[in-house]
Write a structure and sequence with these properties.
The chain is an all-alpha fold. Helices cover 50% and strands 0% of the residues.
């Protein structure tokens, strides 16, 4: 991870597993919503790997096939949002049935993403932290605050 990143994790999973310890990444994040502490991505990886192995599906879980399945599932998520204007955070205007449908489709996306990373031997949790560090350099707060521009659209004169 880049040295100047605010997202440092010691690799000690006790932070993630102890509900009484605040996650250091949550200090400045105002939200009433949190993910469950478990399962971890590694536990999800193992669950899916065992699921596929028990069914003799490893032969079908090539990177190409998994990417195509992942894209299909992302399309199913997009379909749930299609034609819905002004979808608000927390989905307060959605029925419980629609929220459950979204949860199932998002789960499919995560399962395929984790399986793809597994089959490509990509340590996804580590790479996510590294990528956030790279994004912090690409999108420094003093240059991008409140803007949705792409990194190459910012005025270089603002660089300090």
């Amino acid at each position: 991870m880049p040295e100047n990143s605010d997202h440092s994790f010691s690799g000690d999973s006790s932070i993630e597993s102890d509900p009484n310890v605040e996650n250091p990444a949550d200090d400045d994040v105002a939200s009433d919503f949190r993910f469950s502490q478990e399962p971890t991505l590694e536990q999800i990886r193992l669950l899916q790997a065992n699921f596929a192995k028990e069914r003799n599906w490893d032969q079908f879980h090539t990177p190409r096939n998994l990417v195509l399945a992942l894209v299909g599932e992302v399309g199913e998520v997009a379909e749930l949002f299609q034609w819905k204007e002004n979808v608000r955070t927390g989905l307060p205007d959605w029925s419980q049935e629609d929220k459950q449908h979204l949860a199932q489709e998002l789960s499919d996306v995560l399962i395929y993403l984790v399986r793809l990373a597994d089959r490509c031997h990509i340590d996804l949790p580590k790479e996510v932290v590294d990528k956030i560090g790279l994004n912090e350099k690409k999108y420094p707060v003093h240059k991008v605050f409140g803007s949705a521009k792409k990194y190459n659209e910012y005025d270089e004169a603002k660089v300090e």
